Amino acid sequence: MKQLIDKAEVLIEALPYIRRFYDETIVIKYGGHAMTDAELRASFAVDVVLLKYIGLKPVIVHGGGPQIGRILERLGIESTFVEGRRVTDDQTMDVVEMVLGGTVNREIVALIQRGGGRAIGLTGNDGAMIQVTRKVLGGRDLGRVGHVERVDPAPIRAVAEAGFVPVIAPLGIDEAGLTYNVNADEAAGAVAQALEARKLILLTDVEGVKGVGGKLLSRLSAEEARELIAEGVIEGGMIPKVECCLEALEGGVERTHVVDGRILHAVLLEIFTDGGVGTLITP
Amino acid sequence: MKQLIDKAEVLIEALPYIRRFYDETIVIKYGGHAMTDAELRASFAVDVVLLKYIGLKPVIVHGGGPQIGRILERLGIESTFVEGRRVTDDQTMDVVEMVLGGTVNREIVALIQRGGGRAIGLTGNDGAMIQVTRKVLGGRDLGRVGHVERVDPAPIRAVAEAGFVPVIAPLGIDEAGLTYNVNADEAAGAVAQALEARKLILLTDVEGVKGVGGKLLSRLSAEEARELIAEGVIEGGMIPKVECCLEALEGGVERTHVVDGRILHAVLLEIFTDGGVGTLITP
Amino acid sequence: MKQLIDKAEVLIEALPYIRRFYDETIVIKYGGHAMTDAELRASFAVDVVLLKYIGLKPVIVHGGGPQIGRILERLGIESTFVEGRRVTDDQTMDVVEMVLGGTVNREIVALIQRGGGRAIGLTGNDGAMIQVTRKVLGGRDLGRVGHVERVDPAPIRAVAEAGFVPVIAPLGIDEAGLTYNVNADEAAGAVAQALEARKLILLTDVEGVKGVGGKLLSRLSAEEARELIAEGVIEGGMIPKVECCLEALEGGVERTHVVDGRILHAVLLEIFTDGGVGTLITP
Amino acid sequence: MKQLIDKAEVLIEALPYIRRFYDETIVIKYGGHAMTDAELRASFAVDVVLLKYIGLKPVIVHGGGPQIGRILERLGIESTFVEGRRVTDDQTMDVVEMVLGGTVNREIVALIQRGGGRAIGLTGNDGAMIQVTRKVLGGRDLGRVGHVERVDPAPIRAVAEAGFVPVIAPLGIDEAGLTYNVNADEAAGAVAQALEARKLILLTDVEGVKGVGGKLLSRLSAEEARELIAEGVIEGGMIPKVECCLEALEGGVERTHVVDGRILHAVLLEIFTDGGVGTLITP
Amino acid sequence: MKQLIDKAEVLIEALPYIRRFYDETIVIKYGGHAMTDAELRASFAVDVVLLKYIGLKPVIVHGGGPQIGRILERLGIESTFVEGRRVTDDQTMDVVEMVLGGTVNREIVALIQRGGGRAIGLTGNDGAMIQVTRKVLGGRDLGRVGHVERVDPAPIRAVAEAGFVPVIAPLGIDEAGLTYNVNADEAAGAVAQALEARKLILLTDVEGVKGVGGKLLSRLSAEEARELIAEGVIEGGMIPKVECCLEALEGGVERTHVVDGRILHAVLLEIFTDGGVGTLITP
Amino acid sequence: MKQLIDKAEVLIEALPYIRRFYDETIVIKYGGHAMTDAELRASFAVDVVLLKYIGLKPVIVHGGGPQIGRILERLGIESTFVEGRRVTDDQTMDVVEMVLGGTVNREIVALIQRGGGRAIGLTGNDGAMIQVTRKVLGGRDLGRVGHVERVDPAPIRAVAEAGFVPVIAPLGIDEAGLTYNVNADEAAGAVAQALEARKLILLTDVEGVKGVGGKLLSRLSAEEARELIAEGVIEGGMIPKVECCLEALEGGVERTHVVDGRILHAVLLEIFTDGGVGTLITP
Question: Which of A64, A80, C80, D58 is the most buried (most CB within 10 A)?
Fold first, then answer.
């Protein structure tokens, strides 16, 4: 009985967090190990389903690197990268769209449904939802890589209000109706802004944002984050993630998180504990 | 971190139960030690608030014995009892109504609100909700003691749909508009039927229903319950409780429970564990 | 037939008033003789029911002086008064809450239902509706007497929109969840403001507000009222009533009335005649 | 003050009737002296407006005899009658439609609006509402006189739900879209059935239905009415009125009334007194 | 098959126009030859019905000149005109109301219904919808001729939202409840403003607005129109039509059209072709 | 002008068909040449958009044969067929899902959006919508090929009610959450039943169903169709199409069509002409 009461106490401890986030939209960028490791996948699925049942509104935006690479390879198509972003020629884009929309997105929908929820997959060209222009990075053309200009929340809302968890593949379309590859972090940030989300959670394969001496920072203001980038403390692949958070904060999202997706139930722990499990970046 | 993940696992374990009872009405008869012991009171309050937040619809019906007796005594009014039910003359009834509606009901509303919820107190004469006739027990008149004829769910629904936890004092009114004392178990059962509740939970000061040799029965069919009463195994104060469950089952309530209210978080444990903490009586 | 036609003419005369107040909220402070005299009680009840049926939205806020005093006396608890307001120590507060919420409020609900309406009783701690701070009057602590800071109209609206007449006991709660006694006139004024009521009617045991030489004033502007208080013409127990009206006017209530509750159908006459029966105070 | 209180009592006396008919549809056939006498017209208008304001749903169906005759005469068109019904050739029909829809209907709309209500005029061809076939009476063709086959309540409901009193001219259309003259009593009865009205009131120029020896019958069952027709006691122009009531009763209308429209406030007296002012025919 | 495909192409060509005007209100002033010629009448009816079915919201305001004159003549009533507007004495007004509301309005309702739609006729005194003051033109009293002060859109919306095409006779009422004759173009313009219509179409018996040398102008800005009036190029009966358009444009209507109603399907061609069939006047 | 009026006449001719199908769901199985030929693709897209705008509710279910084969080939995966249905082993299924959901479905969404509409792509595992069991055909296991057991219309309705055209890839999931390939005709038929569609249109690469001597049958009863199958007149690939129609008819779909998708605007012609362009099969 003692053990049961302890369990009840855990539920009770969650109450203030449930109350705080009740009916709020939480956008989660899903990727990395959390998407490839079987145990982490299962733990992610039940986390999302639990959030949905206790009254929060989770929205998933996923990446898709490894699968795309594998199919490109099998089809004998080679890629080049510029600053960590794939240069996407037309035949690569066909594969990107096929794999993101037809494999990765589908698997996550199935995953959440096996976890007991109901999900609907969307891509950025459903309802012309993620509107992009061609991205130019440092003067170099990346091909069919899009810069998000605007997200129309209508398709996501239609799906969420009917009781489904929206699972979004990071594709965009331009004015001419051409599809583009979009960075998943960037897509997640733009979706969070369009939905006026309370929280944006980026699941990553690192512990969080690190400060001087490689020390994990559990909390960071936007200003501090900008300084750390300027000083070169935040560097490499972490820069676009932090910038994505900064932009979301400017767009009205209240709290943004860089979370260690390699921990079981990382999403739940982030939402239901005071410290969280990674770095919180606030306005 | 291990400990945090364990906590997350506890939340996850609760998921199937949340799913099962989502959006369902649960009527809880609140009384006994759970209502007098400070720690149990606090644990009851957070249980109710948690249920509300995770999407269930708790409705509280309370008793009020000790407080009534105390005030009667201080006012120098004496009472007689017939088969455990107070004979309620007119001046006693005035005190019953005053204490149930003005003290006990108010305290429970305040208790739930301190626990973080929002509650509204009702008594059976609000909206002429609990309609009764004068009860006659074994040929003996019990005075202003009512037998519930019908419960109009409209006032309870108005309150619940506006987001409040209804807290109901077991009073009834007859056709002439006269108020009556109603047994709290009986009121809870009738309310559960009127609301087409999924569950009726009677909090008691015993472990549950006991079978031959005083062994706690964790599960019982209606038929078995009737036999045990006939055989005299279920006896004394437990008889009306079990009969109240049987009637609720006939009225369409799916599951009824006689639960040990002396355990911390008894309500939560009943709903979120397989075995529960007392006796389940099924149709 | 002549007599019947005369009766029809009376109904017709009421038409412009019905039209004027259609769908409007009217808050009535109920107290004094109107609450103790049997004939006046009955006339009040049918007045309220009639208002409800012809499309107005009456909300009742009641006082409760005599009954509280009587029970305090029977329980041997003595009270002291400061400027006409009871100093409320903790044990007195228990009695105040018990009697206001459990006896007086219940009786008014029953009264309106016997008159053919449907009512639901509320107290200021239902849904933490009447939020107060501890009142300090002229440097003297009055104990558990509250100053209304804010009224949350949600519980009243839930009840009124479901078709019931809300009957409100003047209790308040502070941030810590402690209950307080609130002056009924003050509570009625605050409720009228929160509901954006069209009219606030204070039933009293005097003819109305009197001017120089004790002459009844049938109409008064807020400015004139303030001058009469400053000049000492309005004095004694009438001051808080007039101040309550003035505050309600500032809060957006259109018309406030100090009405002679000793007249049969005082509420109806106030609403359905040009002159009204007492003093109208306008912005 | 005494006189005022007496007036309040009259309002209070009306309460049980208001309660009984609250939100119910009352169809009134308006014609005869009540439509031509200035004082009766004004009294009718305020009656209707009062009904509307206190929560009933009056629907007016009017006749139009005298005005049609006058215009026909001025235009030099002669008519013949069969059993009290005008034989309506095509040019007569043009005048009937013009006068009923353009003059009489318009005047009643204006009349109710001068009385303080808001009304919208409809004719039976609005929305193809009153669907008729050509009536043949005793083998004689009456020309463009319609027998009501079906009433579509949609146009009446659209107008009533938007807060207007529907005023209906008794015209019908057949399958080919041709308009027909319809007896106003018959139209009122059919409208009452289509709207599932609680009451049908036929305003006439007689005291009511008379029995043996010309004695006014204040109440009559459908069976008794049929017997009195069979025995020739009910005769002449009263027969179609009573038959219209009988048919409405069969169609589900609860109460039908033949009322003396020459009395001031006949409609109000009918609804708000026990005896009423004419003859009640019940199922 | 070729011919069928051509037909499909025509439907497809209409698509951008359908898209542009979807769910928009289009007010059409109906009068002149389009109302008297049998073939034009039928073509107008199907045009309106088609608009309704493909998701636009047509509202018809009609004139009624010839029919009024004919009945006045048959009744031996003579009229005088001031600047093309009939001086309307009281007996003339009776005829105007009778003919507009009882004949012309009814015929258009029947016409649209024969075309497969469902219509409801309204006049400006239904629901006191078209509120007017007495018009004075150049110091000369025109009798019962109204100047539109305000249009209450509620009756039109009630009818349109219930799925009917509103057909409005241009009558108005003043504050005293007296009815007035209103110029149909003026009424249509005021109705278009009150409904915040997207388009106002005036069907006329001319090709459109003509410029210098009598050349048809297919498009005109408000400023150009004002200049052409000032220069005397736009003259005679066209002046009030153009002024009506100008006022509607100021009132927020997006596009106004003077269209040649003598062309078959003029309404459809105006809406579904780029050039339209007459003169477009824009802000 | 003549030409314009002719065009207007074509629109008018469409009116009865618009009226007939207004607000009705039309399920279209899209496949074959209509999906591969550029001109047919464009004509299909505008047809769908037009249907949507004029008030019908088109739902698209597509096939995907050629693209799947092409990718399988490029990946070096070989397939075997049983009775025209692909035997789908696990690695084939991965490709099927990827191509149907990620390429074909996406292209049709983009196609409709380029045509001016707004579309959202769904696959049968979104919301666990198309529930299947493993199909066994003539004792031979086809691998991951599903037999549709039930379609949950909720995801389709959510998307359609938000104003988007649902585009559905024919995948299904079984109870264990495993995805299956579903025949597109079968999926379309099941979707039509679940949505209680008015019409099911199967776009094919033949003229329609042919009778004795290869003569095109423009209309066929269910009974006749069954006889023609029994007699061997309907044979080969046409059998499953006709059987799909028969099943839809039994499931309550009113009309089913086997239409020649090689004709421009085949969908529009089917809906807007009397004869249609293929074979109508009725109950």
Answer: D58
Burial A176-203 (b: 16+ CB within 10 A, else e): eebbbbbbbbbbbbbbbbbbebbbbbbb
**How do strand D85-86 and strand D81-82 relate by DSSP bridges?**
antiparallel
- Which residues, in sequence order, are bridge partners of residue F166? F120
- Enter the DSSP assignment of E88: B
The full DSSP string for B62-118 is E--HHHHHHHHHHTT----EETTEE-B-HHHHHHHHHHIIIIIHHHHHHHHHHTT--
* B and E touching (3 or more beta-carbon pairs closer than 8 Å): no
Best CA proximity match to A165, nearest among A64, A28, A63, A33: A28
Interval D1-47: pLDDT, tens: 677 788 888 888 888 888 889 899 999 999 999 999 999 999 999 99
| Subunit partners of chain E (3 or more CB pairs within 8 A) | D, F
Residue with tokens 């504050």: E175
Q: Which stretches of chain B are DSSP H helices? A: 2-21, 33-36, 38-53, 65-74, 90-99, 105-114, 154-161, 184-194, 222-230, 238-250, 266-272
Separation between Cα atoms, residue D35 and residue D107, nearest integer Å = 10
- Measured in angstroms, the CA of B18 and the nearest CA of chain A are apart by 7
F19 closest CB neighbour out of E5, E10, E53: E53
Q: How far apart are CA D161 and CA C278, in angstroms?
A: 38
pLDDT tens, C146-160? 999 999 999 999 999
Q: Using a CB-CB distance cutoff of 8 angstroms, which residues of chain C are in contact with residue B161? A: 158
**pLDDT number for residue E65:** 66
Q: What is the dihedral of CA A282, B2, B4, B6, to 10 degrees?
A: 150
Task: With beta carbons under 8 A apart, name residues in chain B contacting A273.
Answer: 4, 7
Element (H, E) at E220: strand E219-221
Alpha carbon A142 to chain centroid, angstroms: 22
Write the CA distances from C281 to C166, C206, C275, integer angstroms. Answer: 25, 16, 13
Hey, what are A184's tokens? 């998943």
pLDDT per position in chain F (283 positions), as tens? Answer: 677 788 888 888 888 888 888 889 999 999 999 999 999 999 999 999 999 998 899 999 999 868 888 899 999 898 787 776 668 899 999 999 999 999 999 999 999 999 999 999 999 999 999 999 998 777 777 889 999 999 999 999 999 999 999 999 999 999 999 999 999 999 999 999 999 999 999 999 999 999 998 899 999 999 999 999 999 999 988 999 999 999 999 999 999 999 999 999 999 998 888 777 899 999 9
Mutate to test the interface with C, among D3, D6, D12, D262 (most CBs of C within 10 A): D12
Helix (H, G, I), strand (E, B) or coil at E40: helix
Residues D73 and D41: beta-carbon distance below 8 Å: no
Q: Domains of chain C (ranges plus CATH)?
A: 20-282 (3.40.1160.10)
The residues facing C85 across adjacent strands are C82
Count of residues in chain B: 283
User: Which residues, in sequence order, are CB contacts of D101 under 8 Å at separation 6+?
Assistant: D121, D123, D169, D171, E101, E102, E103, E105, E106, E121
Nearest to E63 by CA among E202, E190, E159, E196: E202
CA dist A184 and D265 (Å) reads 76
Q: Note whether B97 contacts C110, CB cutoff 8 Å.
A: no
Identify residue D80 by its one-letter amino acid code: T
* Residues facing A259 on adjacent strands: A203, A278
CA distance C101 to chain B (A): 4
- Give the dihedral of Cα atoms F48, F53, F58, F61; nearest 10 deg: 40
How far apart (Å, rounded) are the C-alpha atoms in residues E73 and E66? 11
Residue C105 phi/psi, 5° resolution? Answer: -60, -45
